[in-house]
Write a structure and sequence with these properties.
- The complex is a heterodimer of chains A (78) and B (428).
- Chain A is mostly helical and 78 residues long.
- Chain A has one domain.
- Helix content of chain A is 37%, strand content 5%.
- Chain A has two helices and two strands; from the N terminus they run ααββ.
- Chain A has helices at 3-21, 51-60; strands at residues 64-65, 68-69.
- In chain A, strands 1-2 form a two-stranded antiparallel ribbon.
- The longest helix of chain A is centred in the N-terminal third of the chain and has 19 residues, at 3-21.
- The radius of gyration of chain A is 24 Å and the shape is flat.
- Chain B is of the alpha/beta class and 428 residues long.
- Chain B has a single domain, classed as Alpha-Beta Complex (Amidase signature (AS) enzymes).
- Chain B is built from 14 helices and eleven strands.
- Chain B has helices spanning 3-21, 31-44, 85-92, 135-142, 159-165, 199-209, 244-255, 273-288, 301-304, 307-319, 329-349, 371-375, 382-387, 415-426, and strands spanning 24-27, 54-58, 96-101, 148-153, 168-171, 191-196, 233-238, 260-265, 352-356, 391-399, 402-409.
- Chain B has an eleven-stranded mixed beta sheet, with helices on both faces.
- The longest helix of chain B has 21 residues, at 329-349.
- Classes of the chains: A mainly alpha (78), B alpha/beta (428).
- The A-B interface holds A 1, 3, 6-7, 9-11, 13-14, 17-18, 20-22, 24, 26, 28-29, 49, 52-53, 56-57, 59-63, 69-71, 75-76 and B 64-65, 77-82, 269, 272, 274-276, 278-279, 282, 293-300, 307, 310-312, 314-315, 318-319, 327-328, 330-332, 334-335, 337-338, 371-372, 375.
Chain lengths: 78, 428
């Protein structure tokens, strides 16, 4: 697979599609909110998961160290 | 035959025929044990609504302990740590999860050929594609591997393979079914829905999986979906491009309705549905796949996926750039709202819109098809996703032995009416 060719092909397809959408004349709609603050439900209880959940999450992680999943910044890019 | 015997027989059938059809990626190792438990409940008269039914699940839906690979090398060893809401509901009603289905990789495809684990074949003709992306789900039902399957439909991924495989496929209204636990393709368009041998089983499943969910803010509460008698039926048939032979089968099927008034309707922008859909999908898919960075779920997606998945990721990354602000995604959103309005207006004049599900017959597996031609397979199914309305594909007939489906579209949350018309047409 040639990444540059695929990228270029994807862009060409979308450019072609969007050029056809240019013909559409439509007014953009917005939803006005009275209050932009979200009310979050605050819970003091910790999230409960079943016994297996933690075990499976660790099984899925490619790199582990003790109780941690290894995910240092930049590690996965190398 | 009791339930346990039925399950054993279906597992045997999968083991025998799946080597050829390649519809199932994993059989539930606990299926026999669970079948015994459900069988006992059936005997005691305390079983749920889905007791006695076997279900195969598309591999992008989390079933605890099963592999939710999305038919990709990226997630080939990813074991789901929890049940999606739809799975919790199925288990609560004693449905038996028999296995996980093959699919187009990350639901990116319309033919069932992009799976990293090989293409699924159409049980009605093994040389042909089964359609996609819920290829394994539809093929499993058609092959008799299970009673009902779950698929996901973003632009036709349930209805397209249902049409090619000769089974019933339902895309619910956006917001009817929780998407919690679905590994998304495009979050503003995805819906989980049933694929079944008949309308009744599809209805049974949809009634179980629908409803409000605190894990998915878009999922709404809704009344039970019921089949009712339809007295006067106003059907709109849009003028759209499709194989004349397929249109003829749809028209012949509609002729059987004596109390229907069929008129031609205009949906002027529906022919731009594909062009509207892909910018939305590219951007949302790029966004949704950022979590597959190789830290928590195995491999980095860009390094392990197939060509179509990579095309959507790279395309989505490119058109999401700040320099293109307002040019792609926003323009597509505006077109989506226009198409949605066109459907709302059309439903002031008619109760249903009926048309072919897929505009052409399925191609041969491996046949060279251009990317754009592949995208246009879904040209008649995408509009329902953009308009957020329910749509159902019903087997309508065959052309040279190849199943052909007709599609019923109804106003948003009018699933009862849609199922009522499907039931009426099913036996004619």
């Amino acid at each position: 697979m040639n990444i540059e060719i695929i990228k270029q092909q994807a862009k060409e397809i979308i450019d072609k599609f969007v050029s056809e959408l240019e013909k559409i004349k439509v007014e953009e709609e917005f939803v006005e909110r009275k209050d932009d603050r979200r009310i979050e439900k605050v819970s003091t209880e910790s999230v409960k998961t079943d016994e297996d959940f933690r075990k499976i999450v660790f099984e899925n992680a490619p790199q582990k160290k003790g109780d941690c999943i290894v995910a240092e910044k930049g590690k996965w890019t190398r | 035959m009791n339930f346990l015997e039925k399950v054993e027989k279906q597992i045997e059938l999968i083991k025998k025929n799946n080597k050829e059809i390649n519809a199932v990626l994993q059989i539930n190792p606990r299926a026999i044990k669970e079948a015994k438990e459900i069988g006992n409940k059936i005997k005691s008269g305390k079983a749920g609504k889905l007791a006695g039914k076997t279900i195969i699940v598309k591999s992008n839906i989390n079933v605890k302990g099963m592999i939710a690979s999305c038919a990709s090398k990226t997630l080939e060893n990813y074991k789901a740590g929890y049940d999606a809401t739809v799975i919790q509901k199925i288990k609560a009603e004693d449905g038996l999860i028999l296995g996980m289905a093959n699919m187009d990789e990350f639901a990116c495809g319309s033919s069932g050929e992009t799976s990293a684990f090989g293409a699924t074949k159409n049980p009605s003709n093994l040389d042909l594609i089964p359609g996609g992306s819920s290829s394994g789900s539809a093929a499993s039902v058609a092959a008799g591997f299970c009673d009902i399957a779950l698929g996901s439909d973003t632009g036709g991924s349930i209805r397209n393979p249902a049409s090619h495989c000769g089974v019933v496929g339902v895309k619910p209204s956006y917001g009817l079914v929780s998407r919690y636990g679905l590994i998304d393709l495009s979050m503003s368009l995805d819906q989980i829905g049933p694929i079944a041998k008949n309308v009744e089983d599809a209805l049974l499943m949809l009634n179980v999986i629908k409803g409000k969910d605190e894990h998915d803010a878009t999922a709404c509460e809704s009344d039970e979906i019921k089949i009712r008698s339809l007295k006067e039926i106003r059907i709109g048939a849009p003028k759209i491009d499709a194989d004349e032979r397929i249109w003829q089968i749809v028209k012949d099927k509609l002729k059987a309705l004596k109390n229907a008034n069929i008129t031609e309707i205009k949906l002027p922008h529906v022919n731009l549905a594909v062009q509207t859909y892909y910018p939305l999908v590219y951007v949302e898919f790029f966004s949704g796949t950022r979590k597959f960075d190789g830290r928590r779920y195995g491999k980095k997606i860009e390094e392990s996926c197939g060509e179509e998945v990579l095309r959507r990721i790279l395309g989505g990354k490119e058109i999401s750039k700040a320099e293109y602000h307002g040019k792609y995604y926003r323009k597509a959103l505006m077109a989506k709202s226009l198409i949605k309005k066109e459907f709302e207006n059309a439903f002031k004049e008619v109760d249903f819109i009926v048309m072919p599900t897929v505009p052409k017959l399925p191609h041969k597996i491996g046949e060279k098809i251009s990317v754009e031609d592949m995208y246009f397979y879904d040209s008649l199914t995408i509009p329902a996703n953009l308009a957020e309305i329910p749509a159902l594909s019903l087997p309508a007939g065959k052309i040279s032995g190849i199943p052909v489906g007709l599609q019923i579209l109804a106003p948003k949350f009018h699933e009862s009416e849609m199922f009522s018309l499907a039931k009426l047409l099913e036996n004619r």
